[in-house]
Specification:
This protein is mainly alpha-helical. It contains 14 helices and 2 strands; from the N terminus they run H-H-H-H-H-H-H-H-H-H-H-H-E-E-H-H. It has a two-stranded antiparallel ribbon with strand order 1-2. Strand 1 (259-263) and strand 2 form a beta hairpin. Helix 11 (209-223) crosses helix 14. It is globular.
Length: 307
């Protein structure tokens, strides 16, 4: 796929004063056309190194000043004056941000020292996390969508090794995926969500079985455990069925929310129709071969053959 023109447009935007001002307005909103989403798209494409350092540094500074550093579980815990939509970050957003910044080479634990402990703080007893605060006060059940980005952040970006607490964190996350066999409800053969069978790129926070499979492959190698072997083998069996002419195609999109919080000229924020940027439209199109999905396929299949 030729996306050079779309790539140039995104890189030009990220180098602009307009992008700088967009982060001043909000580090995240509106979806899907702000520096946040362009940076995360480049990260998933393996091109985050192309992002201008100036804009990433500004994003880090804004994230640190804009968000509260806790995840309120009940309304009374929200500090006065805090916008519950715009100033309380979700676990999946922070997990994705941690990965992109780390891949770029930013010292995340130094610049955002509250971020890594956040993931461990909000792990639920079943091993995952949930961006619905009621899960912590009522059901105690995780969301697999909310869980993967934080779990990946700790497992994939620990250059100095895992602490005992972090080992427990990634192990519990693996056991959560094993219990659900990547896509099933824990107590039956019913799918958690039919869409998890359809591969997605870029994912942002979305989940598909390949995402969970890659986590288990990396966890098994890192932790020298065979607990996930059977689930990995079954995941690879599903994955082989996706291969067509030595390619894997994108089967669904992760950016289908049609409304987003948008800042008006008055300074107020309202829900308005969302906008896409050209690179996201091009690489996220369904039915086209995805290099990222094929790379995940190759990694998983090769691991099975060589282990």
């Amino acid at each position: 796929m030729d996306y050079q023109n779309e790539l140039n447009e995104t890189l030009g935007y990220l180098a602009s004063d307009e992008a700088f001002r967009a982060i001043d307005n909000d580090p995240y909103w509106p979806k899907w056309d702000t520096p946040w989403w362009r940076i995360m798209t480049l990260y998933e494409m393996g091109m985050v190194h192309l992002v201008p350092e100036r804009i990433l540094n500004h994003l880090v500074e804004k994230v640190d000043s804009h968000y509260i550093k806790t995840f309120p579980l009940v309304e009374k815990d929200i500090p006065s004056g805090v916008d519950p939509y715009r100033q309380i970050p979700c676990h999946c957003a922070l997990g994705t941000l941690y990965q992109a910044l780390s891949a770029y080479g930013i010292a995340v634990d130094k610049r955002l020292p509250w971020l890594r402990p956040w993931f461990l703080e909000y792990q639920l007893p079943d091993g995952g996390l949930n961006c619905d605060e009621q899960a912590y006060t009522k059901s105690k059940k995780s969301s697999i969508v909310s869980s993967l980005p934080p779990l990946e952040a700790i497992l994939y970006f620990s250059p100095n090794g895992l602490t005992p607490e972090e080992e427990g964190f990634v192990d519990k996350g693996a056991h959560y995926l094993i219990k659900h066999r990547l896509i099933y409800k824990s107590s039956s053969d019913d799918l958690m969500d039919e869409s998890f069978l359809r591969l997605c790129s870029p994912r942002f926070y979305e989940y598909d079985f390949l995402r969970g499979l890659i986590y288990l492959v990396n966890w098994q190698k890192r932790r020298h455990s065979n607990e996930s072997k059977e689930v990995i083998e079954k995941g690879c069996h599903l994955l082989r069925q996706k291969l067509r002419d030595d390619s894997i195609v994108n089967e669904r999109i992760s950016f289908d929310e049609r409304e987003t919080l948008t800042k008006l000229e008055s300074g107020a924020w309202e829900w308005l129709p969302s906008q896409l940027f050209p690179l996201l439209e091009k690489v996220g199109e369904t039915g086209i071969a995805s290099r990222q999905l094929k790379a995940g396929h190759d990694m998983a299949i090769n691991y099975i053959f060589n282990s």
